[in-house]
Amino acid sequence: MLAKEVKPGIVVNHEGNPILIGSMTVQSPSARGAATLYKFRGRNVLTKSKIDIVFKGTDVVDEADFSRRNVQVMYSDPENMFLMDQENYQQYEVPLEDAADQVPYITEGLEGIRALIYNDECVGIDIPASVELQITQCDPGVKGNSATSRTKPATLETGLVIQVPEYMKEGERVKVDTRTGDFLSRA
Fold it and tell me: E-assigned strands of the chain?
């Protein structure tokens, strides 16, 4: 495929490594005959390191042998998380340190989890952009302060602590952005 056809979310091979493309910018030439440059920011799927890549629009980019499979979490131990493919029931094992950023958002029965498969091996997981979690502990709101947009810390069912609006109470469900960890809305 040509570099100008690469979109965010695609995995390409770059110098023998699978790179998950996260964002891209296009730099138009300022002179006649110059090539349009495509600048990609990505993440190495195996090492989790970030990388910047620059291609001309006519450069050929090799797409990686990569797939995403719908899975569900079976269980986890102190070192690994065990997943099951929902189509063929194949089981995958992911080290918890590789999924450390996603673990605080995963609850029992969470839908939309996908295993990142590279060369028939699970190299990570992908979770939905937002999840619903229950507040298990937070301080009560003070009456009369609803005119300002103050926040307070709240502990969610997975142990994650986020800032929520002052009117939220224990037992309520909230939507949380899994990319930033921010409160989105009531669920």
Answer: 11-14, 17-27, 37-44, 50-56, 62-63, 66-76, 80-85, 91-95, 114-118, 121-126, 130-138, 151-156, 161-165, 173-177, 183-186
